[in-house]
C-alpha cells in the first residue's frame, strides 16, 4: 500500500521521485516536496532546469571518462597539465577530491566502479580497456604515458582492481604506482588500528 | 577471569536483567524455556560477537520488542575482572529501516570494532549438541576452530574475514564464467587475495589443532581409564604433501613445536596455488572454489579408529569432552588467564567417571556457570559448593 495515495497525484509523484534518491527516506521526501510547493515558482523552475540540463548537457569525456560538458574535458585540454602522468580513480567524485589538493598536475582516468563479481561487475563493465587503449594510442604521440598512479580505494575490491590493471600493464613500459597507505595526517598513533599501523610501517620513508 | 556483573536489555526473553555473578561455581536451575541457556548465550555473544545458535544476529532480539518500539535495540554489558584489572565490555545492536542492523561494540566505554573484542572476555561453552562435533558435518568442526581462535587471535579474525570476502567474489566470478568468457587475470587477482589469507587461516588452525591434540591426550586417558589414545588430526584441504617436510610431523600429531618453526607460509602458498591449478578445470565446471580452508577437515581417532565414522555415542561424547577441556587449557596458555566455563545441561548426560574428570578440571577455573532443569541430579556436596540461582520466565532469583 502506498502511504502517499491520498495525496494529489502530482505531489505523490514528486515524493516518490525524491524517495528514490540515495539517503532520502519517505519523510525527507515529503518535506522536500512540501517545501517546493510553498516556495516561489522560480525556485521550482530553477530546479527543473538544473535537473534537465544535468542529463542533457553532460557526457563522458572521451579521453578520461570524467563527467564533463565539453569533450575533451577541461582537465584533459589544460596545456599546463602533464599528459604523461595518469591518475586512475574509481569515481568522478574522486577526481574532485584529488583536484582539491591542487598539488597533482597530471590527468585522470575514471573507471566508473571497481571489479566486483558479486555485484555483476567485471573488467569490461569498467573503463579498463579504454585505459589500455589510451596508453597505447598515446605511446605514438609526442607525449607518451610515463606513469600510472592507481588511486582506487584500499578496500578488497579496490585493491583487486588495482592488481588487475597492474597485470594488464605488465607488458608495457609504463611505470605503475599505488597511492601510499598509512597514518592520516593529524591522527594519533595510539588510535590507529593494527592494519593501518603495519601498512604505515611497511611504507615508511627514509629520512636520511 | 570472571564476570562480576551481567546486564541484559531485550536479549532473548530478558526485557531487563541485572545480575551479580559470583566467582567459582554457579548453578542456574529452571524449567525448559525459562531463560537458562540465554544467560550462557549472552556471555558467549559478548565474547565472540556472534550468537551460538544462529548465524543471524537479529534472532536474539526479544520476541515482541518490535511492536513496542520502531527502532528496537539489544544491549549486553559485562563487568569483567581480568588479571590486568576490571573492564567493561558492551555490545549493542539496533534495528534500523528494512534489514539494517547496527552493531556497536564498546570496551571501557570506547567504541571498538568486532576484531577488538578478541581477548576481552574468553569463554568455553559446552552444549548438549556438541557431541555432533565428531560425527556431524565438517562445517561444525570448522566453526569450532573459528570460535576458539577468534577469541584469542585478532590476526586470525582479519585473515578469515578477508579470505571469506575474496572467496565470495571468486565464486561469483566462477558462476559468471558460465555466461561469458572470463579473463584469466580476473581469476588470478582474486587468487592473490585468497591464497595468502587462506594460508594464514590454515597455518593458525593447524597450530591450534596440533596444540589441542597434545593437550587432549592425557585428558582423554583419564576420561577413558587409560583405554584410549586420542588423536586429533587436522586435514587441510590443499595438498600439503607438496612440501613434504611440512606434512609428516603434523599428521602424526607429534612434535608440533619444532615442526612449526620449520616451515613457512611461503611453502604453503605454493602448495595452495599448485592445488588450485590442478583443480582449475573442475572448479570452472562446478562454478565453485574447491580449494581452501573453507573445505578443511578435522578428524578424531581413538587408538587409530575414526571416532566420527565408527565410534560409539559414548566414545564421541568423550572425545568432545577431551577436546573442550584441551581448549580450556589452550586458552589459559594463550591468554595467561582462566577462561570462563559455560556448561549447558552437560553434566547430566555424563557417567560418574567422566563427570568426576570434568569437575576436576573445573576446579581450577575462576568461574563456571552450569545450567540444569533438576538440581537433584547433583550430589549434595557439589551443590553446597555452588551459588544457586532459579530462573523463571526471564526473572532470576537468588
How would you describe what is shown here?
The complex is a heterodimer of chains A (208) and B (398). Chain A is α/β, with parallel strands linked by helices. Chain A has eight helices and six strands; from the N terminus they run H-H-H-E-E-H-E-H-E-H-E-H-E-H. Chain A has two domains: 9-57, Helicase, Ruva Protein, domain 3 (Orthogonal Bundle), CATH 1.10.8.420; 76-206, Dna Topoisomerase Vi A Subunit, Chain: A, domain 2, CATH 3.40.1360.10. In chain A, the strands form two sheets. In chain A, strands 4-3-5-6 form a four-stranded parallel β-sheet. A two-stranded antiparallel sheet of chain A has the order 1-2. Chain A is globular, with a radius of gyration of 22 Å. The model of chain B is unreliable at 242-261 (pLDDT under 50). Chain B folds into two domains: 1-122 and 338-398, P-loop containing nucleotide triphosphate hydrolases (Rossmann fold), CATH 3.40.50; 131-336, Up-down Bundle (Glutathione S-transferase Yfyf (Class Pi), Chain A, domain 2). Chain B has a six-stranded antiparallel β-sheet with strand order 2-1-4-5-6-7, with helices on one face. Chain B has a six-stranded mixed β-sheet with strand order 8-12-13-3-14-15, with helices on both faces. Chain B is of the alpha/beta class and 398 residues long. The longest helix of chain B has 40 residues, at 184-223. The A-B interface holds A 25, 115-118, 120, 122-123, 156-157, 159-160, 163-164, 167-168, 193-195 and B 97, 113, 154-155, 158, 162, 165-166, 168-170, 172-173, 175-176, 180, 182-183, 185-186, 188-190, 192-193.
Could you give the topology of this structure?
The complex is a heterodimer of chains A (208) and B (398).
Chain A: H1 9-19, H2 26-38, H3 41-57, E1 59-60, E2 67-68, H4 74-77, E3 85-89, H5 92-101, E4 107-110, H6 128-139, E5 147-150, H7 156-168, E6 175-178, H8 194-202
Parallel strand pairs in A: 3-4, 3-5, 5-6
Antiparallel strand pairs in A: 1-2
Helix pairs in contact in A: 1-2
Chain B: E1 2-11, E2 14-20, E3 24-29, H1 36-48, H2 65-68, E4 73-82, E5 85-95, E6 101-107, E7 110-112, E8 123-126, H3 132-135, H4 138-150, H5 154-176, H6 184-223, E9 230-235, H7 244-251, H8 256-262, H9 265-278, H10 280-286, E10 297-302, E11 305-306, H11 307-310, H12 313-335, E12 340-344, H13 352-362, E13 367-372, H14 380-384, E14 387-392, E15 395-397
Parallel strand pairs in B: 3-13, 3-14, 8-12, 12-13
Antiparallel strand pairs in B: 1-2, 1-4, 4-5, 5-6, 6-7, 9-10, 10-11, 14-15
Helix pairs in contact in B: 5-6, 6-9, 6-12, 7-8
Amino acid at each position: 500500500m502506498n502511504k502517499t495515495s491520498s495525496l494529489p497525484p502530482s505531489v505523490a509523484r514528486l515524493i516518490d521521485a525524491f524517495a528514490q534518491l540515495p539517503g532520502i527516506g519517505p519523510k525527507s521526501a515529503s518535506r522536500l516536496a512540501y517545501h517546493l510547493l510553498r516556495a516561489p515558482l522560480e525556485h521550482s523552475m530553477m530546479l527543473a532546469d538544473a535537473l534537465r540540463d544535468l542529463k542533457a548537457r553532460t557526457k563522458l569525456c572521451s579521453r578520461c571518462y570524467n563527467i564533463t560538458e565539453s569533450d575533451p574535458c577541461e582537465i584533459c585540454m589544460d596545456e599546463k597539465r602533464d599528459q604523461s602522468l595518469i591518475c586512475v580513480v574509481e569515481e568522478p567524485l574522486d577526481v574532485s577530491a584529488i583536484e582539491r589538493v591542487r598539488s597533482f598536475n597530471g590527468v585522470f582516468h575514471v573507471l566508473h566502479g571497481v571489479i566486483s563479481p558479486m555485484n555483476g561487475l567485471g573488467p569490461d563493465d569498467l573503463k579498463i580497456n579504454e585505459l589500455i587503449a589510451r596508453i597505447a594510442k598515446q605511446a605514438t604521440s609526442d607525449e607518451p604515458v610515463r606513469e600510472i598512479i592507481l588511486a582506487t580505494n584500499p578496500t578488497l575490491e579496490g585493491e583487486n582492481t588495482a592488481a588487475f590493471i597492474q597485470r594488464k600493464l605488465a607488458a608495457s613500459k609504463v611505470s605503475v604506482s599505488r597511492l601510499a597507505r598509512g597514518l592520516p595526517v593529524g591522527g594519533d598513533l595510539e588510535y590507529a588500528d593494527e592494519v593501518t599501523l603495519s601498512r604505515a610501517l611497511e611504507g615508511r620513508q627514509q629520512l636520511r | 577471569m570472571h564476570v562480576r556483573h551481567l546486564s541484559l536489555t531485550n536479549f532473548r526473553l530478558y526485557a531487563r536483567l541485572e545480575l551479580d555473578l559470583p566467582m567459582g561455581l554457579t548453578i542456574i536451575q529452571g524449567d525448559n524455556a525459562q531463560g537458562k541457556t540465554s544467560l550462557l548465550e549472552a556471555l558467549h555473544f559478548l565474547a565472540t560477537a556472534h550468537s551460538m545458535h544462529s548465524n543471524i544476529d537479529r534472532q536474539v532480539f526479544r520476541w515482541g520488542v518490535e511492536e513496542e518500539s520502531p527502532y528496537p535495540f539489544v544491549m549486553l554489558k559485562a563487568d569483567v575482572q581480568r588479571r590486568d584489572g576490571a573492564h567493561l565490555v558492551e555490545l549493542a545492536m539496533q534495528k534500523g529501516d528494512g534489514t539494517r542492523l547496527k552493531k556497536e561494540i564498546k570496551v571501557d566505554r570506547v567504541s571498538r570494532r568486532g576484531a577488538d573484542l578478541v581477548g576481552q572476555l574468553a569463554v568455553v561453552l559446552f552444549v548438549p549438541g556438541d557431541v555432533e562435533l565428531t560425527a556431524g558435518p565438517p562445517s561444525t568442526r570448522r566453526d569450532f576452530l573459528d570460535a576458539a581462535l577468534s577469541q584469542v587471535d585478532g590476526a586470525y579474525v582479519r585473515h578469515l574475514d578477508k579470505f571469506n570476502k575474496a572467496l565470495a567474489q571468486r565464486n561469483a566470478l566462477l558462476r559468471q564464467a558460465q555466461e561469458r568468457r572470463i579473463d584469466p587475470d580476473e581469476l588470478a587477482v582474486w587468487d592473490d587475495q585468497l591464497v595468502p589469507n587462506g594460508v594464514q587461516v590454515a597455518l593458525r588452525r593447524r597450530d591450534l589443532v596440533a596444540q589441542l591434540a597434545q593437550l587432549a591426550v592425557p585428558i582423554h586417558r583419564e576420561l577413558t581409564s587409560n583405554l584410549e589414545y586420542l588423536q586429533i588430526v587436522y586435514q587441510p584441504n590443499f595438498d600439503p604433501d607438496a612440501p613434504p617436510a611440512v606434512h609428516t610431523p603434523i599428521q602424526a600429531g607429534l612434535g608440533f613445536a619444532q615442526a612449526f618453526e620449520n616451515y613457512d607460509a611461503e611453502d604453503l602458498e605454493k602448495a595452495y596455488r599448485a592445488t588450485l591449478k590442478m583443480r582449475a578445470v573442475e572448479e570452472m565446471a562446478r562454478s565453485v572454489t574447491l580449494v581452501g580452508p573453507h573445505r578443511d577437515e578435522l578428524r578424531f581417532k581413538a587408538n587409530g579408529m575414526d571416532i566420527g565414522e565408527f565410534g560409539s555415542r559414548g566414545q564421541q561424547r568423550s572425545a568432545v569432552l577431551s577436546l573442550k577441556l584441551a581448549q580450556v587449557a589452550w586458552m589459559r596458555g594463550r591468554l595467561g588467564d582462566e577462561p570462563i566455563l559455560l556448561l549447558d545441561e552437560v553434566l547430566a548426560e555424563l557417567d560418574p567417571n567422566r563427570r568426576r574428570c570434568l569437575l576436576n578440571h573445573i576446579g581450577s577455573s575462576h568461574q563456571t556457570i552450569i545450567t540444569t532443569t533438576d538440581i537433584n541430579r547433583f550430589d549434595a556436596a557439589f551443590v553446597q559448593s555452588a551459588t544457586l540461582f532459579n530462573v523463571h520466565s526471564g526473572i532470576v532469583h537468588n
